[in-house]
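Worked Example 4.2. Consider the chain below.
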Amino acid sequence: MITNTSLEYKGDLYPSKIVSYEHEGDSIFFNTDNKVILKVTILRDSLIRFRFTTKGYFSNDFSYAIDKTQLHGYNFLELTEEETYFQIRTSKVKCKIQKADLRLSIYDLNDFLILEDELGFHWEESYEYGGNIVKMSKYSKDGECYYGLGDKATQMNLKGKRVENFATDQYAYQKDQEPLYKVVPFYIGLHNKQSYGIFFDNTFRTFFDFCQERRNITSFWAEGGEMNYYFIYGPQMQDVVTTYTDLTGKPELPPLWVLGYHQCKWSYYPESKVKEITSKFRELQIPCDAIYLDIDYMDGFRCFTWNKNYFPDPKKMVAELAEDGFKTVVIIDPGIKIDKDYWVYKEALEKDYFCKRADGPYMKGKVWPGECNFPDYTNPAVREWWAGLFKELVSEIGVKGVWNDMNEPAVMEVPNKTFPMDVRHFYDGNPCSHRKAHNIYGTQMARATYHGVKRFAYPKRPFVITRSAYSGAQRYTSSWTGDNVATWEHLWIANIQVQRMSISGMGFTGSDIGGFAEQPSGELYARWIQLGVFHPFCRTHSSGDHGNQEPWSFDEEVINITRKFVSLRYQLLPYLYTMFWQYIEEGVPMLKPLVYFDQDDTQTHYRNDEFIFGNQILVCPILEPNAVGRRMYIPRGEWYNYWTNELFIGGREIWIDSKFDEIPVFVKAGAIIPKYPVQQYVGELEFDELTLDVYYKNGKEQSAVYEDAQDGYDYKKGRYSYLSLRNIGKEKELIIQLHKEGKYETPYSKYKINLIGLPFKVKEIEIDNEKIEFDKINFDINNFLIVDKEFNELHIIGD
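Applying the procedure from the previous section yields the following structure tokens:
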């Protein structure tokens, strides 16, 4: 008999009234009469978790995203009951929960409304799969802006956009295309000079709507799982991003060479071609630290094998490349070729480590090797096995880094480009279907790869890069923005994507310089290099189907521009290394969109192009052909044009002339920028001077320089050097104060100090209150001096 019972309950369901509550430690449980439970957990005074269940109990609490090493604790927690609501108060915010329907609102301590539920939590039963489609909607305030969500190929400000999170192999994606490779369900809201964050920790396919469907409503929902989200209070965007990054974790420090320039192509082979490429870099004096081998280095695309026709002695080749300063990075994909004579396949088959369909057989899909099975990286035993596979590559052959690709996971010749949704996963003891595990598959592969590379690279530091990632992947891996296109539009996209990734916790990111698909013009490649050297990860990569993309593939002018900007990156390595240290120590993003840098200036809220590199360098790429300059916004404060040393007052949009071999780059007044001499690769030179570019400011400014042995783990034992630099400018005096922490002794003994923008003629110089003769410090009319590094205070006195 057919009835309409299943139809009676279709549509949205809502919590009913609260009938009881319990307060247990840092958590408060609110129970409704229709079995909905809201668990509110105060992790910090500014970090609150909201977790809902509709079945009267909670399933096991498990997350791949959360960094479990982080310690949480609040300073103050008070629960009070009013006539129509409960109020939870911390030392930072107040949260009101309505008794009638669990709708909540969050205020600061001055009763300013930060965030308010519209419909609040509601759900729809999923009759196709079981479980719920979980939903949340909130009011959007007048003028509210939204940022974050990882590598979305759209405007920095997400207001008016709807986005989808489902890790997808999107070859040659376009502007506004959804979804892409990474899933970072974290956004930042900003209104009335107050910032907050929402992290929706749900690995199912999720959606976010920022006032597209309904003008004043923002919403997010998932196709399964729990409504489980974290509220992060600022009020500064810096506070929100730092708290989120602490919550989901930070990487360890990479070896310094990883921050150099990398060259890649699909594919460099045979060995003679690889050496031709590396030799050309040295011949042209374009610095480069890493060369990549794509899938063609393998025997029939079988992971952990070598094509001996192309690479007859890989260990010897890798060693010879290393002698010339090149570190070898190889690709490893998740698809394991079905081949009974292939040792990796046989081991996984014997151990039953491959993913299975719901009715038993192994998941089978076509990738580069042909038909493949796929390891279940959500099983810790599989991850341990996978890590062990890197022994030969890393400890015996000498490979220095591993590149994980196709790990969304990508499958060819199927409509949805990935596994069927009925594939089963172990999920670290929480068995589930691919609907839940899909978005974290790439992260768990990268995690297993990281542990393997780290194990066999020791005592050196590991390097791993992944295409697909979920929140928290930054603990294990760097990333890039996937298969982009050699177009001016994609140069614009790359600029925004890397900024967005940086404030989404995944700072160690770059794009394929020049574009992966199609062929760039020389002008486009040059403009992309000029941007890419200011991204944390800096690599040219291209598809061999579309021609060559090495710097010498273009004319002499492009070669010279590439050399100039890559050399600049190598000069700035101590600045970049310091940026990375501050990222891992303090959760400070390495790239800062202007809205992050100065959220109180509403002119920054819709800026896409300009960004702060580190703390004190402003960069604005040229994004159009035939440009002789561009309009750009200079943030508030004083800024020096890097190329001309001309001083600009910020808080306004201006036209900046820019030649083909330049882009607008500015340095914050008062900054002290450390520089190394240009090296062809990290560690090539021994040098006895660190250059400090000191930019005058009438006022005070803090800078820093972090250094260590550039690899290895001694820095964790205190053998590092963290130099705090204080620049104090007065009308006729400049004071530089130094304070060093750490036990590492830098190999150089002197500082070469360049004084930029001094408004006075130097009359006298004192070091630690002792007057110094000009000839003893090589002081000249160009305002540079060379001093011993062991000083505390330097006075530059004018007449």
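The longest helix spans residues 434-457. Residues 571 and 675 are 5 Å apart (CA to CA). Compare this with Example 4.1 before moving on.
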